[in-house]
Design brief:
The protein has 215 residues and is an all-alpha fold. The chain has ten helices and no strands.
């Protein structure tokens, strides 16, 4: 399966070049499960082995795809995801007070989630969407989104370019570690919120007084 998937990606890369890198990364970043990171690595390895592609342009294409894709995911979450939760959230326990907690938490820690989420397999496709749902300020989101996309594309692009095929041996274990770390962080966050729910609700209400529509 991995061999077939890789050869298919190589075909797209050979046919569309930098555009393939941009589109694959953008689709993944918008919240759709897609092999964007794999395409970046394949392009970077190819640039290092054959020099038919410029590693600088591969990194630019990946960073641009990450930034634009994340912004699409952000606005989908802000306009669509938020409205769905606002209308139907009460049926699954997301009342206005809990929605305010999410907005409050993203206002305090959203930058970290957006930046580091770019490097975590589970969060890469969802961090932007969650930022939008929780009404993170777009200017603040854009700053950390751009920083995360540029740093991620540069590190992975140069890693693939310099290490070549050997990077596959690193990406597998690193991917597993990031998934485990993401699971631990998510569980720890849920436990923290659950144990401090009332206090967080009070802080959120103090920071965001009045109807939630104002925010």
């Amino acid at each position: 399966m991995f061999y077939v998937a890789t050869t298919t990606l190589q075909h797209y890369l050979a046919t569309y070049g930098y555009l393939a890198v941009f589109i694959f990364v953008a689709i993944e970043s918008a919240g759709i499960p897609f092999p964007g990171e794999t395409m970046l690595l394949i392009a970077a390895i190819d640039a290092g082995r054959t020099h038919q592609l410029s590693i600088v342009l591969v990194i630019v294409a990946a960073a641009s795809g990450a930034i634009i894709g994340d912004n699409i995911g952000f606005f989908v979450g802000r306009e669509g995801g938020y409205r769905v939760l606002r209308r139907y959230g009460r049926y699954i326990g997301f009342n206005e007070r809990r929605l305010k907690v999410g907005i409050y938490m993203f206002r305090r820690h959203g930058g970290k989630v957006v930046f580091f989420g770019r490097f975590v397999a589970v969060l890469r496709a969802w961090a932007a969407f969650l930022a939008g749902v929780n009404r993170m300020k777009w200017s603040h989101f854009l700053l950390f989104n751009a920083l995360g996309g540029i740093v991620w594309a540069t590190l992975y692009g140069l890693g693939g370019y310099l290490l070549g095929k050997n990077i596959d041996r690193l990406v597998g274990p690193v991917g597993t570690v990031t998934i485990v770390l993401a699971a631990i962080i998510i569980i720890a966050t849920l436990i923290f919120v659950w144990r401090n729910e009332r206090q967080l609700e009070e802080r959120a209400e103090e920071a965001l007084p009045g109807p939630i529509e104002k925010y």
